[in-house]
């Protein structure tokens, strides 16, 4: 499968998940949409750039109910009234396939989706882990157009070197979402997040861990404008465990820097400091 980021609004990402033509009985490449806030744009990219006609669209995955992610659902439902719209709660517009933690379903032949509930940013946040089960494949090169075996769509739960605000939940919930649920995914799973917040996130991570080699490597990536400045779909779960301070709340250096008493308290203090714009390094 391939995953295509489609920038929408000022800093959001929608996505196309593309099947392999060889996996379809009719030999045609199929597509699923993820968080298509600007439905018309995502549909146009699918058609004009990848030859995906309307009959090749199979459904829509919604990571959570916030309008900058679910705002294209009604237009999708109007264009494709018989197709599934998956998501975690009835708050999601046009939802017709509600999913819960542990649910799974086939997206395309050989490509399966498993649903991981990560309540905190919103209580209906679902991270969709998508895996291509075809034999003989290896995880493709880094970059937005590389072939992927394993990908996770994290919405506003996990960002590159950051996480979402705790709008509807607690530090304990975000700790479990990041460091239990998502951390349990295979390390080579490629992360596709909901926003391009990486520069701000990395500035904060560097402020927390100034001389850390993993954070410094990420800083250098940003300075070189690696992958044209697009950071979604470049890093893996294993990378995030190394360069994301919100996934390093057990690290004594992180706890000491923010005065955290244990992992959950450290998560809470990190989020408060980031919200307040503190510990932001120049990068």
TrEMBL record:
GO terms of molecular function: hydroxyacylglutathione hydrolase activity; metal ion binding
Key words of the record: Hydrolase, Metal-binding, Zinc
Cofactor(s), names only, from the UniProt record: Zn(2+)
EC category: hydrolase
Pathway it works in: Secondary metabolite metabolism; methylglyoxal degradation; (R)-lactate from methylglyoxal: step 2/2
EC number: 3.1.2.6
Metallo-beta-lactamase domain: residues covered: 11-195
Key word Secreted present: no
Catalytic activity: an S-(2-hydroxyacyl)glutathione + H2O = a 2-hydroxy carboxylate + glutathione + H(+)
Source superkingdom: Eukaryota
A Pfam family reported for this protein in Swiss-Prot or TrEMBL: Lactamase_B
SUPFAM superfamilies per record: Metallo-hydrolase/oxidoreductase
GO biological process: methylglyoxal catabolic process to D-lactate via S-lactoyl-glutathione
Family membership noted in the UniProt record: Belongs to the metallo-beta-lactamase superfamily. Glyoxalase II family.
Name the UniProt record assigns to this protein: hydroxyacylglutathione hydrolase
Higher taxonomy: Eukaryota, Fungi, Dikarya, Basidiomycota, Ustilaginomycotina
């Amino acid at each position: 499968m391939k995953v295509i980021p489609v920038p929408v609004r000022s800093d959001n990402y929608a996505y196309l998940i593309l099947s392999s033509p060889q996996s379809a009985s009719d030999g045609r490449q199929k597509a699923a949409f993820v968080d298509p806030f600007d439905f018309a744009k995502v549909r146009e990219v699918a058609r004009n750039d990848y030859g995906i006609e309307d009959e090749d669209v199979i459904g829509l995955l919604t990571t959570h109910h916030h309008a900058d992610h679910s705002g294209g659902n009604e237009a999708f439902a109007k264009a494709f009234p018989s197709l599934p719209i998956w998501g975690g709660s009835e708050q999601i517009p046009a939802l017709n396939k509600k999913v819960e933690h542990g649910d799974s379903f086939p997206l395309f032949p050989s490509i399966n989706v498993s649903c991981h509930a990560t309540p905190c940013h919103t209580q209906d946040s679902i991270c969709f882990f998508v895996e291509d089960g075809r034999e003989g494949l290896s995880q493709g090169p880094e970059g937005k157009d590389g072939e992927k075996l394993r990908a996770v769509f994290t919405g506003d739960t996990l960002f590159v070197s950051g996480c979402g605000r705790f709008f509807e939940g607690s530090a304990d919930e975000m700790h479990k979402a990041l460091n239990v649920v998502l951390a349990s995914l295979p390390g080579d799973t490629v992360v596709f997040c909901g926003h391009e917040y990486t520069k701000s996130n990395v500035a904060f991570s560097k402020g927390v861990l100034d001389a850390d080699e993993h954070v410094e490597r990420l800083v250098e990536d940003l300075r070189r404008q690696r992958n044209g400045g697009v950071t979604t779909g470049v890093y893996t779960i294993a990378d995030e465990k190394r360069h994301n301070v919100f996934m390093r709340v057990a690290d004594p250096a992180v706890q000491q820097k923010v005065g955290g008493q244990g992992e959950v308290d450290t998560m809470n203090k990190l989020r408060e400091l980031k919200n307040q714009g503190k510990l932001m390094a120049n990068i």
